[in-house]
Amino acid sequence: MISLLPRFAAEVHKHLLCNLLNTDLRPVTLGIFGRAGDGKSAQLAASLAARGVDARRVVASRLESSHAGEPGRLLARMYRDASAAIANGTPAALIVDDVDTTVGEWENHTGTVNHLQVLAELMHIADRPIDPDREWPNRVPIFVTGNNLGRLYPPLRRPGRMHLFAWRPTLGEVWVIAHHVLGDVAAPSAVDALVREYGAEPLAFFADVRRAVVDAGLDRRLAAFPDDLAILLKNRDTFAGLARFAPSELLDGPSLLHVAQRLKDGRSDAGRDHLAGYAD
């Protein structure tokens, strides 16, 4: 279960209140932007779940279609249905993750008809969040996340159409998440040392460190599994317990830092162009 960070949750709560009460104190859309891996989508989902909000996610792949205009109509239908749910007493919200990749402006890409239709629909909703002619009786809080605000169509992100929330966890928030993620595999002092050394890393880095710690003991556990995978599947319940991670002891500081450095080195190597220097 994710550790909900109060600063993030408070921003989401404020946006919900301002819109579910049909006030115009805020634009209907909250844009949450920041670097990849800092938990924007996870924190948003946890914040909405904690408040009992029916979060309706607009899947990026559905914002393209072979039928011109269909993604824009889909967005309008989802907004209409969420607006009706709110009118009936169910708190609801729309989420568009990675909005800069789905409807962002990219070099040498002028946008498809569907791309332009989605942008037009988002701007129409921003300007008329309550529209009886379109069966929108209530404002619906919209949350969009992204990494690069500069890719977003400027008229959509201007003041009055979108409220912006730049998300970058503080060192204290990194400490909270790191202890939450690594508390069952490393001693508290080891996690403190890790945060001191790698506190500038995205939050996802600490989840990756945990996976690396778990993976380090995988060979020992795999020895108990049969080589015949068909037998394993037939006896899946019997072997499931063996797959769960149960550390024999919590890692100390040097051991945890060694895992983290090895992970960093592996990432650097994976990002290298391994074809460089080869002749055609």
UniProtKB/TrEMBL annotation:
Lineage top rank: taxon: Bacteria
Native source species: Dactylosporangium salmoneum
Classification via Pfam families: AAA (PF00004)
Family membership: Belongs to the RuBisCO activase family.
Protein name, as recorded: ATPase AAA-type core domain-containing protein
PANTHER family for this protein: PTHR32429, RIBULOSE BISPHOSPHATE CARBOXYLASE_OXYGENASE ACTIVASE, CHLOROPLASTIC (PTHR32429:SF11)
Residue ranges constituting the ATPase AAA-type core domain according to the UniProt record: 32-164
